[in-house]
Each structure stands twice: as C-alpha cells, then as structure tokens.
Amino acid sequence: MAAKQQIYLYDTTLRDGMAGEGVNFSTNDKVLICEHLDRFGVHYIEGGYPGSNPKEMEFFAAMAKRPLATSKLTAFGATRRKNTPVAKDPGIKALLDAKTPAVCIFGKSSEFQVKVALNTSLKENLAMISDSVAHLKSKGREVVYDAEHFFDGFKTSPEYTVKTLEAAQAAGADFIVLCDTNGGTLPGEIETIVRHLVGAGFTRLGIHTHNDTGCGVANSLVAVDNGCIMVHGTVNGLGERTGNADLCAIIPSLQLKMGYKAVPAAKLKRLSELSHFVAETANMSPDPYQPYVGKSAFSHKGGAHGSAVRKDPSTYEHIDPNLVGNTRKLVVSEIAGRATLQNRLKALNIQLDDAQLAKFSESIKAKENEGYSFEDADGSIALMALDTAAKKRRFFQVESYHVHIHRFPKDVPHNGDKTHTLCDATLLLNVNGVPVMAHSDVHNGPVNALDAAMRKCLEGQFPAINKIQLTDYKVRVIDGKLGTKSVTRVWIESTDGKHTWGTVGVSPNIIAASWAALKQSVEYGLYLHHRSGAKASTEKSKSVKADKAKKKAS
Q: DSSP 3-state assignment of 251?
C-alpha cells in the first residue's frame, strides 16, 4: 500500500476530554499525560482554556519549563467577544499569555447559534472570527480555527456557514476544523459536505467529531478520506456526553488500514500503553473491549478460533496486535479447546501430557459450571494444572480460620479509628508439617485481617511473602435473584514486583470466596519465587560445572 499524505493529529484529551463526566485531572496529571502524548508523537496537544481558571494557567506555566520534543502545545479559547476590540479582549489576552506556539479558537458557524447563543448580528460574528484570527497571527501564533456547530449550520444555512470559513481563511488561519459539536451527523452527510468544501477550494481542513450517534470514529475517517488533513480526538474517546472521537481507534485505522501517515511505526507500538496510562490517570478501568488497545481486542475463547490462531493468527485477527503494543490472548474457559489450554499453560511454563490435559479440561468445565471464570486468573489456572500433574508444592495447608467483625458505638472511639469497626482473624496453618497459628486485628475489613494473619504465619518460613501485594479486588454476584444468598465470585490481582497474576474464588459466603482467592494468590506467588530460585540454582550449578571443566581442560 503506497503511503498517502501526512495527517495531523490534534489531541484534546486535556480540554475536551476533561468535559467528560467523572473526568478530572490535576495539574500534575495533565503534565504527565502531555509528556506521554509527546513521546507518542501527536502533532498538537490542546492543553486547556487558559482564561477559564487558575489551574489552567498553572498548567501552561508548568509546561513552559518542559519543552516538548515532537508536539506543539496549544492553548484553546474563543473568538473575541461581541462589540469588543480584539486587543482588549481578556480571552484573547489569556491565549497569548499562555505563550504556546499554537492556539485554537472556536467561533460560531451556524446562523441559529449566532442569533440565539451569541445574540449578535451575522456581520458582527464574521468580524469576531476575522479579527481574532488576524490578531493571533500578527503575534506569531499558529492558528487552528474550530468552526463550532459547522455541520448543523451547513444543513440549515450553507451560504452563511461557508462565509464563516472564508472569514477565518482570509484572516490567515492555518487549519479550519469542521466541528460536529452535537455529534448528530452521519458518515454519508460528512462525506457529501467535506467533498463539497474541498471542491470549493478549502485545502487545510480538519475534522472534530463527537460520538453521540456512535459514529465519531467513522465520521473522522470518512472526513479524512474526502480531504481533511487534521483530526481532532481524545485518548479513549473521553469527552462530554457520550465522548469525543477515539484517537486510539482513529490513528491505527488511518495508518494500518487506509495508508495515511500518522505517527512512525515504532511510536504506534506505544498506543496501548498510552491508552492504559490515560485511563489509570483518569481513575477509570481500561475498557477491555476497546478496539485495538483493549486487553480483549485480540482474545480468543472458542476452541476452533484458538486452534486456528495458533496455526496462523490472520485466521481471526485483522492486524498483528504487536503493531499497536497489544498482545494476543487465548482465553481458558469451558468452550476452549485443548490446543488453547495447552498454549495457555505453555505461556505459564507448565506442561501436561495428553491424559493430564484431558483431566484438566474437565476440571475447568466443572469449575466454570460452579461459577468460576478463569479469563484473568493465571494464578488459579497454574495451581489447578500443577495439582492435576501432581506437581503442586504444598507450601502450607489451612486447618481452620475464624473472622470476627466488631462494631463500636460512635461515641466510643477505638484507638482513634473513625470507622468504629474492628476486624480480627485467627488462622491455623500447617507449614511444613508444623502447626502455626496467628491472630490479627485491623480496621480495614475481614480480607485485610486474613491477609495479615496469613503473613504472620508464613513470613518466618517464606520471607518472599513480603514481596506479594494485592493490587485489585473485585466481587461479582453470579445470580442476583437469590439476593444476599447469591453465590459470589471474587477476583484478586496480585504482584511481586516482577509478575502480575489473578486468582479467583467462588462461594455463597463472600468471606470464603475472598479467602480462597487470597490464599491462591499467595500460593502462586510463592510458587513463582520457588521456581525462580530453582532456575537460578540450576543455572549456577551449570556455570560451576562449566568452570571446573575449563580448569580441568587447561
């Protein structure tokens, strides 16, 4: 595929993305996201609206000390106010005070918006656009003009809407961006209107879409294929209402599917990392089903699919996941074939013979029938497989455990704890044939109490337990019809700093389900440490033998 022209990527996560419900970035968050976007290689990063609040100016001040390598930091604002000299407009002044190489200003391109929202004349609106663009250009700024409500305006009053673009172009705007502000335009309409503008002589057009009809990405791609050379969007599609067009889908589609230049191939491999970083910074769980970058985007659950993908990934994958920094995943489930199970175990460095694999497959099906889910539970899968092969080391066995939850009156503080709740756990384990009992009391809940007691029991024999930390904990009610009697599934994610794994427990008793998942997380963590130590010992032994052989030969 011959490469087409360069498409300029304009990220508005730090401004339009923050308009999304529940999204709030601190100044430091914005700085870190900006640096990630710069490393990824977007051409323009819209940092915010400097005239809106002190935090925005704090961000621009912070970025003045952190020059970007590839991106142009862009300040966002509006055209001058009606009946106000542009040189005296506070919003325009704030844009210049931000000292960014590029600015983006929006103006009304719809007769309806001019009359109702601005409450001014059509002539004054054209002057507001022209004056603002010309003034910013005279101060040495690159100017991106956002034609707000463009598509809605074009549908009702195309002649005036085009005049607003002409005013911006005549004043020297570097890009004129067509905005589907309300997100209600469909791809066919985008195609017809953009094609009309290109035919009318507009050459440096951009597209800014929202996702209210679910067409944000499609509208952006159609606009590019019909002449737009700049694309606005946000990472993960963050934005007001249903969000903006998602750059994480737009960029690889432009580059891998349509042949346009967006970012260098090496940087495209950072796309999944960028997506996940922004999600975590926004305190949101990454969407597993997000195209290209979701962890399920290249997962295969069906037996036939898994078998085919092992032979040739293109049988069920539209691109190589490595191109966008993602990975292939063969999901272990009751419908997975033995080839899928074998491949998953191979990734865990566990081998089963045919008879063991058949037994393991039946165990998986039986467990899932009880309510287990192993899609993100490598730790549980590995322990089951090792048990099937009779290779599971019994680091410890549970003899009994007791958990109590105490609630104290609010007027009786307990050791200064504001929750007035105390959880204590007593645990009896068999560790290498020796009974070990421990007790703990905490204010953070029964799972924390059990965890603390288990660590007390094991840290003497297995110091590596101190490296194992719980990083996520989720509870799912399997059958809500039974109310509080429902069976619950608890999933725990843990890490030792080098590896991350999941474990799962199922029980009508949420404490029992939590304990099962917690116990397995520690068992698997100790297994990984033991395996690593055994491997290191073997390597050292080989090295010693090799040295002895060399000395003997000499």
A: helix
Q: Is the pLDDT of residue 199 over 50?
A: yes
What b/e readout covers 49-84, taking b as 16+ CB neighbours within 10 angstroms? bbbeeeebbbbbeebeeeeeeebbbbbbbbbbbeee
- Let me know if residue 321 belongs to a domain: no
Domain that holds residue 184: 8-263
| pLDDT surpassing 60 at residue 2 | no
- Same domain? 232 vs 90: yes
CA dist 470 and 492 (Å) reads 7
Residue with tokens 């970007």: 68
**Tokens linked to 217:** 């990405």
Contact 99, 47 (CB under 8 A): no
Q: Is 80 exceeded by the pLDDT of residue 305?
A: no
The two beta strands, 421-431 and 434-442, are: antiparallel
**pLDDT beyond 60 at 224:** yes
Both 545 and 489 in one domain: the answer is yes
Query: Between 34 and 534, whose confidence is greater?
Result: 34
Domain end residue (candidates: 213, 235, 263)? 263
Q: Tell me if 275 is assigned to some domain.
A: no
* Through-space distance between the first and last CA atoms of the chain, rounded to whole angstroms: 60
Residues paired with residue 366 on neighbouring β-strands, in sequence order: none
Distance CA 469, CA 29 (A): 25
Residues 437 and 414 in one domain: yes
Query: What mean pLDDT do residues 111-140 have?
Result: 96
Task: Kindly list the strands in the beta sheet with 488-495, ordered across the sheet, starting from the edge strand earlier in the chain.
Answer: 469-477, 488-495, 500-507
182 shares a domain with 69: yes
Cα–chain center distance at 279: 4
The whole-chain average pLDDT of the chain stands at 88
- 378-397 pLDDT, tens digit each: 899 999 999 898 888 889 99
Strand pairing report for 500-507 and 488-495 = antiparallel
- Which region among 15-29, 87-101, 175-189, 526-540 has the lowest average model confidence (pLDDT)? 526-540
Which residues fall within 8 angstroms of residue 534, CB to CB, at 6 or more apart?
none
17 close to 245: Cβ distance less than 8 angstroms: no
SS3 label, residue 472: strand
pTM summary value: 0.70
Q: Which long-range contacts (CB under 8 A, 24 or more apart) does 530-535 make?
A: 530/393, 530/395, 531/349
Number of domains comprising the chain: 3
Can you give the pLDDT at residue 392?
A: 80
Task: Report the candidate in 202, 208, 238 with the shortest Cα–Cα distance to residue 220.
Answer: 208
Quick: pLDDT tens for 423-446: 889 999 999 889 999 999 887 889
Burial code (b: 16+ CB inside 10 Å, e: under 16) for 423-454 equals bbbbbbbebeeeebebebbbbebbbbbbbbbb
* Same domain assignment for residues 59 and 141: yes
Sequence-distant (6+) residues with CB within 8 A of 460 are 436
CA distances from 243 to 36, 118, 552 (A): 21, 25, 71
Residue 531 lies in a domain: yes
Q: Are residues 348 and 426 in the same domain?
A: no
* Domain at 552, CATH number: 3.30.160.340
